[in-house]
Automatic annotation (TrEMBL):
<keyword id="KW-0503">Monooxygenase</keyword>
<keyword id="KW-0408">Iron</keyword>
<dbReference type="GO" id="GO:0020037">
    <property type="term" value="F:heme binding"/>
</dbReference>
<dbReference type="InterPro" id="IPR001128">
    <property type="entry name" value="Cyt_P450"/>
</dbReference>
<keyword id="KW-0349">Heme</keyword>
<dbReference type="GO" id="GO:0005506">
    <property type="term" value="F:iron ion binding"/>
</dbReference>
<dbReference type="GO" id="GO:0016705">
    <property type="term" value="F:oxidoreductase activity, acting on paired donors, with incorporation or reduction of molecular oxygen"/>
</dbReference>
<keyword id="KW-0812">Transmembrane</keyword>
<protein>
    <recommendedName>
        <fullName>Cytochrome P450</fullName>
    </recommendedName>
</protein>
<dbReference type="InterPro" id="IPR036396">
    <property type="entry name" value="Cyt_P450_sf"/>
</dbReference>
<dbReference type="GO" id="GO:0004497">
    <property type="term" value="F:monooxygenase activity"/>
</dbReference>
<dbReference type="InterPro" id="IPR017972">
    <property type="entry name" value="Cyt_P450_CS"/>
</dbReference>
<dbReference type="Pfam" id="PF00067">
    <property type="entry name" value="p450"/>
</dbReference>
<keyword id="KW-1133">Transmembrane helix</keyword>
<comment type="similarity">
    <text>Belongs to the cytochrome P450 family.</text>
</comment>
<keyword id="KW-0560">Oxidoreductase</keyword>
<keyword id="KW-0472">Membrane</keyword>
Length: 515
């Protein structure tokens, strides 16, 4: 192997592309053989047979969540896949998930960082990809206790309210015409998040133009994060970036970085001049924390930007897609639409508009959200975990460094757990013991354990408030001659395959309530 390395780096012996390819294949084959030989000594989970070098890569179905569910029917609730040089382990049962995310929580608290994720988040410096330890705990504390606590979210309610009301006005101006619900809710959530991040920094039309730019970039980033990458499966090839994924992600991340720099400089200028002292946006808070933070685990500018990136990329598609799936399921079930609107009329009234203060009085709408997340969890395989040491799960050896997929999508559709699991039925949550805490491994749409989603409280508020406002303000119908399709499209974030286009009709008694 040293000889091959010398040949690859020599300046005296130029290699043709064909020779280089042969050497690379030989090198990868040797490493794969060595890995497989080692694994024979371990009691690994069962799994489908693969082919030399590529393992099971060539047989993967693009719809991974349903493909993995099918393999579980053949190989059992825990099985392995050879993904090039990587070993993938798929878990598809509540009991085994408990072992991974609770019993061995610390061992599985790390991530197998993909090249696209590393490029998108300043080398993996955000709360999603940072390894478990003091740095991650600092970031988690900033997010959960400071940025996304109920107290902080209460303080920025007016920012959320303003954007949702503007969306209502947009739909009202297009009454009787088809509108793309998912697209508009993406822009709404994006504007809410950017307002929360630097609401006191950017004003007027500049803020609107930022929202449009972000939509384009976020869509491309989430697509790249969900795209299979040769660099992840054959780490030795990562330097070549054969699919150009890292290069594309670097370009997208730089676009965000330039925006972040502008926002940071504007905020520093405003603070230096003594303005906006009453501002409550996150950027001001993070800059203050960076200056006054813990000397042992300081927050850096890179951490600050990475957290802003998490807010933009992690909080937009997930929330807007959940709203879109909920609206589609509600429209597909007229009885659910009727019950939801009856509850809203009883709590809010037709001579009033929805406020977040109404939300806790809407148990049926909460059940609608829970049922939506049961059928369509935002991250169907969660974010893959990675054991920091070799351990045992379900009696099988799980080697250090494996990529662990927890198929929450399949578990929440398991007929042995859920009655009529494919039926959208909010009533199953009417007397619900289930919540979003991740303590019940039959239902954990936001994950569980130390790496549970940090934005759960924000997502719950945004989804419920948006659904309540849309359903209270309008009746919704499909365009003439159209049929409803709720087919999913797999990605790191689950999406509706065909965008939901619907026609709004006003329900409120006073037109001024749409202003």
């Amino acid at each position: 192997m040293a000889l091959i390395s010398d040949l690859l780096h020599t300046k005296e012996l130029p290699l043709s592309p064909l020779t280089l390819l042969v050497l690379l294949i030989f090198t990868l084959s040797w490493y794969t053989w060595k890995k497989q030989r080692t694994s024979l000594l371990l009691l690994l989970p069962p799994g489908p047979r693969g082919v030399p070098l590529f393992g099971n890569l060539l047989s993967l179905d693009p719809e991974l969540h349903s493909y993995f569910a099918g393999l579980a029917q053949i190989h059992g609730p825990i099985f392995k896949l050879r993904l090039g040089y990587k070993l993938g382990i798929v878990v598809t049962s509540p009991s085994l998930t408990r072992e991974v995310l609770k019993d061995h929580d610390v061992t599985f608290a790390n991530r197998d960082v993909p090249e696209a994720g590393r490029a998108a988040t300043y080398g993996g410096s955000d709360i999603v990809w940072t390894p478990y330890g003091p740095e991650w705990r600092m970031l988690r504390k900033v997010c959960v206790i400071k940025m996304l606590s109920n107290t902080t979210l209460d303080s920025v309610y007016e920012l959320r309210r303003k954007q949702v009301r503007e969306t209502v006005g947009y739909f009202y101006r297009r009454v009787g015409s088809p509108v793309n619900i998912g697209e508009q809710m993406f822009l709404t959530v994006m504007n809410v998040i950017t307002n929360m991040m630097w609401g006191g920094t950017v004003e007027g039309e500049e803020r609107s133009s930022l929202g449009a730019d972000f939509k384009e970039v976020v869509s491309e980033m989430t697509e790249l994060l969900g795209k299979p990458n040769i660099s992840d499966f054959f780490p030795g090839l990562a330097r070549f970036d054969l699919q150009g994924i890292k290069k594309k992600m670097d370009g997208l991340a730089k676009r965000f970085d330039r925006i972040f720099d502008v926002m940071i400089n504007q905020r520093l200028k405003i603070d230096k001049e003594g303005g906006s002292k009453d501002s409550k946006d996150f950027l001001q808070f993070l800059l203050k924390l960076k200056d006054e933070g813990d000397s042992k685990t300081p927050m850096t500018t890179i951490h600050l930007k990475a957290l802003l990136m998490d807010m933009v990329v992690g909080g937009t598609d997930t929330t807007s897609n959940t709203i879109e799936f909920a609206m589609a399921e509600i429209m597909n079930k007229p009885e659910v639409m009727r019950k939801t609107q009856q509850e809203l009329e009883a709590v809010v009234g037709k001579d009033n508009i929805v406020e977040e203060s109404h939300i806790h009085k809407l148990p049926y709408l909460h059940a609608v959200m829970k049922e939506t997340l049961r059928l369509h969890p935002a991250l169907p395989l969660l974010v893959p975990h990675c054991p920091s040491e070799t351990c045992t799960v379900g009696g099988y050896t799980i080697p250090k460094g494996s990529r662990i997929f927890v198929n929450v999508w399949a578990i929440q559709r398991d007929p042995s757990i859920w009655e009529n699991p494919l039926n959208f039925d909010p009533e199953r949550f009417s007397n619900s013991k289930w919540d979003y805490s991740g303590n019940d491994f039959n239902y954990f749409p936001f994950g569980s354990g130390r790496r549970i989603c940090a934005g759960t409280a924000m997502a719950e508020r945004m989804v419920i408030y948006s659904l309540a406002t849309l359903l209270h303000s309008f009746d919704w119908n499909l365009p003439q001659g159209e049929t409803l399709d709720i087919t999913e499209k797999f990605g790191i974030v689950l999406k509706k395959k065909i965008p939901l286009v619907a026609v709004p009709t006003p329900r409120l008694s006073n037109p001024s309530m749409y202003e």
